[in-house]
Amino acid sequence: MDVNKAKTIRLQIKRTMENLEKNNYGVSYVNLISDLVPLFSSLIEKGSVVGASGSVSLSESGLIDFVKNYDCTFIERYSPLYTKEELHEKNMQHLSSDIYLASANAITQRGEIYCVDGSNNRLAALLYGPKKVYIIVGQNKIVNNLKEAVNRVKQLAAPANAIRLDRDTYCVKHGHCVAPLFDDKHLMSIPVGACEKGICSSFLVLGRQSIKERIHVIIVGEELGY
Ligand code: SF4
After folding, report:
1. Residue 113 CA to ligand 1 centre (angstroms)
2. Cα(209) to centroid of ligand 1, in Å?
3. I want to staple 143 with a disulfide (CB 3.0 to 4.6 A). Which of 34, 136, 148, 154 is the partner?
């Protein structure tokens, strides 16, 4: 990467971390994806009960494989054999876990976290329940503000996830949301009936937290997930 561009991104990460800290998040930075496991192994306590959301970032991070082989209890929510009821039970167990791992759809330089869910299990765990939440994001998810966060989801994150999940949606065919435009009055909403089979049900902005460092954001100086 061009040295000037790299320096600019580094400054944006620094500002993001400072504002996350002011908003009561724990924050860490690692240069490389391969640095994540060594960092996380210094943060996790043996015997912890660990849950994790579905996330391309987490899969690419190596952390899921790490916790599966670590001296902890990992609540696996992915199995083609699970019934709907069993999957619900796993999601409920995540809410009382010691540690919950997730990613976010965007992090603003103002220190906000933006997430969009289809079934809301990740949003529920981010909001309340797990004693500690680690959010792992690549530098590609840092945006200036919430409008850019919404745009990022509509133009990239949700279409890519809908393709991954093999959904029959407008964005799968066209590469952007059926409602790509938005304004101050319609920041997040999808027009009624515009996307019946979509993955964008709920829109969460996490701002200043009342419980200091319950949520810990780890930023990676590489591209991770989408
Ligand atoms: S609302 Fe529907 S079309 Fe728009 S990004 Fe989400 S899944 Fe795709």
Report:
1. 20
2. 29
3. 148
Domain that holds residue 98: 3-107+130-142+210-220
Count of domains observed in the chain = 1
Cβ–ligand 1 contact at 203 (below 6 Å):
no
Residue 86: inside a domain, yes or no? yes
Structure tokens that stand for 60 in this block: 């690419």
Give the CATH number for residue 36.
3.40.50
Q: Is there a domain that residue 96 lies in?
A: yes
For residue 191, give both structure tokens: 């027009």
The answer to whether position 226 is within a domain reads no
Dmax over CA atoms of the chain, in Å, equals 52
Give the pLDDT score at 122: 97
| Residue of minimum CA distance from atom 6 in ligand 1 | 200
Q: How confident is the model at residue 191 (pLDDT cuts 50, 70, 90)?
A: confident
Q: Regarding predicted confidence, which is higher, 78 or 145?
A: 145
d(CA 159, ligand 1 centre) in Å: 7
Is 38 domain-assigned?
yes
DSSP code per residue over 181-220: ---TTSSS---TTS-TT-S--EEEEE-S-SSTTSEEEEEE
